[in-house]
Amino acid sequence: MLSERRLEVLRAIVQDYVGTEEPVGSKALTERHQLGVSPATVRNDMAALEEEGFIAQPHTSAGRIPTDKGYRLFVDKLAGVKPLSSPERRAIQNFLDGAVDLDDVVGRTVRLLAQLTRQVAVVQYPSLTRSTVRHVELLALAPARLMLVLITDTGRVEQRLIDCQTPFSETSLADLRARLNSRVVGRRFTDVPQLVQDLPESFEQDDRGTVSTVLSVLLETLVEETEERLMIGGTANLTRFGHDFPLTIRPVLEALEEHVVLLKLLGEAKDSGMTVRIGHENAHEGLTSTSVVTVGYGSGDEAVAKLGVVGPTRMDYPGTMGAVRAVARYVGQILAES
Amino acid sequence: MLSERRLEVLRAIVQDYVGTEEPVGSKALTERHQLGVSPATVRNDMAALEEEGFIAQPHTSAGRIPTDKGYRLFVDKLAGVKPLSSPERRAIQNFLDGAVDLDDVVGRTVRLLAQLTRQVAVVQYPSLTRSTVRHVELLALAPARLMLVLITDTGRVEQRLIDCQTPFSETSLADLRARLNSRVVGRRFTDVPQLVQDLPESFEQDDRGTVSTVLSVLLETLVEETEERLMIGGTANLTRFGHDFPLTIRPVLEALEEHVVLLKLLGEAKDSGMTVRIGHENAHEGLTSTSVVTVGYGSGDEAVAKLGVVGPTRMDYPGTMGAVRAVARYVGQILAES
DNA sequence: TCTGGCACTCGGCCCGGGTGAGTGCCAGGA
DNA sequence: TCCTGGCACTCACCCGGGCCGAGTGCCAGA
């Protein structure tokens, strides 16, 4: 429906606007891009693009700026993903290689992404749902007080205190620990419930209550803690947002502080492949003037969590997408190694 | 050196400026406060205060605003700490009481402080140096791979992976675990090194290497991890900073993202009692237009960490100090209970 | 020592004209 | 049919001038 040239015009508008942050006019366009036609022709094309809702004028007699719909078309049809330069790739690898534990990996990733894209970075901790159990440990802190420690293959460690009604002997504890581990180690979290279902029955009558308590805490940890954690960084980049500051930045900062909101945002994105949500496509109203680029990452072929950046709709999509994808890949590698 | 009334004038200026965010003139002052003298007299006092460097004019023929030195005098001599209302106290307690683990306590505290003071809140995790050991656990993940889990009285849990050169038998492990715990449980971190010093000698020749490795990892955890963690929140409140936004807010956001900077900041504060650092008193240049109010908190009488808020020098000092102190107290209680 | 009066300063606001980028439309040409 | 150059028009932005008023410093008198 739109001629080849009109698409070209749209691409040029997006590129120029992203670069200059100012409405772009027909004359400037023809000067900066070899479109092969005169400004007048471009004006006609622009009128058509505006008619279709891809671009808009802030006010009469100003240049055009892309609308959310325009960016959408740009991202879907016109823009590729810009691969990083090899020095950049090396820098990423070096930077991430120094990480010592999971917190450090996530922390470094956030800083890296923020620096690379000059935007706000969001990194979700590897999810518990997709991971497998590396080890379950039970400690007796006091006769009727246990601690459950869960170690995952992604390096995450969760611990829970358990108060039992009745004291639990050290031998029973060792027994439970051994049986528990033999059943769940190496298994997926989602499989654990049915694997331990009949475990209480194999214990003495006296201990069954405690065993059940322990198991229910374990299952709670698996399920409830699917409520994920995440880390954000690069909020200082928000100051490059625009000139009409306080109004724009405030709701964004508020949204970013609500990790629940961000987790929902990440949850809405596709599990595999890259997702770009532009402006009003974001449900949360604080983020309607931002775009969110996310991608899943994981230690194997399957994504265990997501990461991405939040920036103005007027962002360098190809570059941002390239950086996000590359970082996700390297983080995946790091996780696989550890 | 300054008469009683001049101090009163300074107090009035600070209060008005904090309330209105606008330079305050002599006439407005006499109208809003019962100083008992005329504007002309106040003008003379203001001239004297300006001479001494406590207040300044942004430009000729404007009202006066307090300088850092003026705020300093205000905080030291003129302002008390405003206690919270009892509904506020109840709200704090209710809010903090719902916390389930240490992360949750710290998270809730940050949100609470940010909300209460309407500023940026910073909460340091309870320090390892001052705390005592609740339990040390050793798990064999693989024949030559151990995991060390350290649980503190403040609810903090640290874990470390240990690769041993030689396999370590389950009995030796149990032995080490038992001896280790009998020596260090309930002890201060600082005392641990000498308490475990002679431990390797009591083991078989074959195991000594591994025992030493384990101990050195334990000591590392104690010492090296004195490098603290912290959590911040309420950055959206920065938008209430001023009208000259981008310039002011940017360096602050940058400083806040550098946890190292914040930890240094907290480290410079007094260990006991409240510390208020005003404007240029803060070493970090991003924070020279902010004031930082901090106080130590702990589960007992001794402070194990600090918390505080970062806000514009033009802040409500009595109210902020009251909120910070109250929150610190309640957090201390919560930690003592758990 | 305080007070009222007075002249002065200067930032903020409003107004009006000039400027220029950008547009829409139209008639003519490939 | 599509592109092009020309032309009139619109409107945000810039700039300078004038008014206003809050606030000051100083001084003489109580």
Features:
homodimer; 338 residues; alpha+beta; five-stranded antiparallel beta sheet; three-stranded antiparallel beta sheet; 12 helices; DNA-binding
Care to describe what's here?
The first copy, chain A, is of the alpha+beta class. Chain A has helices at 4-20, 26-32, 39-52, 68-78, 86-97, 102-117, 170-184, 192-196, 205-224, 245-257, 259-268, 317-337, and strands at 55-56, 65-66, 120-124, 133-142, 145-152, 157-163, 230-233, 274-278, 290-297, 305-312. In chain A, the strands form three sheets. A five-stranded antiparallel beta sheet of chain A has the order 7-3-10-9-8, with helices on both faces. In chain A, strands 4-5-6 form a three-stranded antiparallel beta sheet. A two-stranded antiparallel ribbon of chain A has the order 1-2. In chain A, helix 1 (4-20) crosses helix 3 (39-52), helix 1 crosses helix 4 (68-78) and helix 6 (102-117) packs antiparallel against helix 12. The first copy, chain A, is elongated, with a radius of gyration of 26 Å. Chain A binds a DNA duplex (30 and 30 nucleotides) through helix 2 and helix 3. Chains A, B: It comes from Streptomyces siderophoricus. Chains A, B: Residues 103-321 form the Heat-inducible transcription repressor HrcA C-terminal domain. Chains A, B: Negative regulator of class I heat shock genes (grpE-dnaK-dnaJ and groELS operons). Prevents heat-shock induction of these operons.
